Amino acid sequence: MDAGVEARLRAGDVTFGVDDAALLRAIAESGSVSAAASELGRSRSRALTRLETLESAFGSLVERRRGGSDGGGSRLTDTAHDLLARFDRLCAAVSGTAQASETVVEGTVTERTGELALVETAAGTVRALVDENAAVDSAVQVSIRADAVTLHAPDDAPAGGATSARNRFRGTVTGLDVGTAVASVTLDVGTASPLVALVTVESVERLALAVGDEVVASFKATATRATTV
Amino acid sequence: MDAGVEARLRAGDVTFGVDDAALLRAIAESGSVSAAASELGRSRSRALTRLETLESAFGSLVERRRGGSDGGGSRLTDTAHDLLARFDRLCAAVSGTAQASETVVEGTVTERTGELALVETAAGTVRALVDENAAVDSAVQVSIRADAVTLHAPDDAPAGGATSARNRFRGTVTGLDVGTAVASVTLDVGTASPLVALVTVESVERLALAVGDEVVASFKATATRATTV
DNA sequence: GTTCGTTGTTCCGACATAGATACAACGACT
DNA sequence: AGTCGTTGTATCTATGTCGGAACAACGAAC
Predict the structure, then answer these.
(1) Cys-Cys with A35: which of A30, A178, A187, B141 at CB 3.0–4.6 Å?
(2) Neighbouring C-alpha atoms within 13 Å toward the C-beta of A94
(3) What is this model's ipTM?
(4) Near strand D (CB < 7 A), which residues?
(5) Nucleotide nearest to B69 (CA to C1')
(6) pLDDT digit of tens for each residue in chain A (229 aa)?
(7) Regarding the domain delimited by A9-99, which CATH topology (the fold level of the hierarchy) does it fall under?
(8) Does domain A102-228 have CATH number 2.40.50.100?
(9) Most A CBs within 10 Å, among B127, B201, B220, B227, to test the A interface
């Protein structure tokens, strides 16, 4: 999980976070609540109380048994495994959200149809999903995830315009950060902040991208979010 | 913010969450820490202590003044406004993450290049971003956001294959949930869980989608995440 | 029967969080 | 000078969180 962001699953007043996940994982690994607590440098007392709280909200998580060849023990339920998988996916998503450069563009809502709105920005008109607060003339911030942006050569760009399901900005490559398999491309599209696209190295090579080139960036309306400021 | 998910910004040991955002907003609106605390049904004492903690981690957030025509008052700094905007965007992203149906497909890593890997799934081979834990033969869960999926008529589908920057699954429409401007399309692509795509109503109409139709779903490699299980 | 190592349960103390209270200080206004 | 309504500061109490300690209970192994 990214150091600057923290996510938790919530059920009623109870939340499930990193420490809880660590506890469940330590139990799965050691087969004992006592050993898990000890490994995590926490009290068994607290671990038991915490499990009680979590189980009241999320269902049975740990099956505990006393006596037997190993003195007793504990193991995770399927519910616990599901919960951990859910938490992992949330973390990956939030981590992706935090890490994926996100371009924020100021704009004004000019039209609204259900959950979609047209937003006028310095780079042109954008279609985006909006929350219930956004009405015509609302000032909004449009967030465009770098991993949602597809790059095209100007000649190959998909048809655009206000009626298209796909937004498109024409821009100039101002930066290229090429890694092993993934590259970050920075574009000047006329907005205060540059638009960043996270694409594969193959896309960069296929398009023969270099600083100074003209490209068209496209991104889905339903992957574009506008929040009121 | 979605009821099942909670997100916070973190700096060191200090986190900034919903309650903190509410406090800053109430201060901005009333122009006073006392009034804000009162409105939120909290103690002024606590509000002040909390502000102190937040400011130690995030920088100066509130400018306070005593005396004057209104007896004194407080206003937010630019830093506070930036922090709130950042928090709002995180919430919108997390909310989008939680709300956007996300299809999870089991798979096995067959090849890895830097941050990208090939994953064999029941629907075919997928390219996805992976975390550092994922090695060849690792079992992974591939998450595909509904808002990252583009639908195409079979004839118009982009070129596919293991070398393409774009993943593609061929499937059959099994469900259509059409709203005012946004639609959710469910596809049987051969995996245990159906693939869900969040698209505009216009896309549905342009493709003349109906249950039983064959379509091709495509989604970017860099927008596809695989987490180890 | 005894030992072992876990769980089940209860109780206690330390520290953190949160609210309540009170007085001093400030600057505009009367 | 007095009033107003905020802030600055300090102190106190109640509740929640967390860790620690202790004993009983369990079932396999010896």
Answers:
(1) A30
(2) 29
(3) 0.72
(4) A 41-46, 49-50, 66-69, 71-72; B 32-35, 44-45, 48, 64-68, 70-74
(5) C28
(6) 556 788 889 888 889 998 999 999 999 999 999 999 988 888 899 999 999 999 989 999 999 988 888 888 899 999 999 899 888 878 877 766 655 678 889 999 999 988 899 999 999 999 999 988 889 999 998 989 898 999 999 887 766 554 456 899 999 999 999 988 899 999 999 998 899 999 999 999 989 999 999 999 999 999 898 988 7
(7) Arc Repressor Mutant, subunit A (1.10.10)
(8) yes
(9) B220
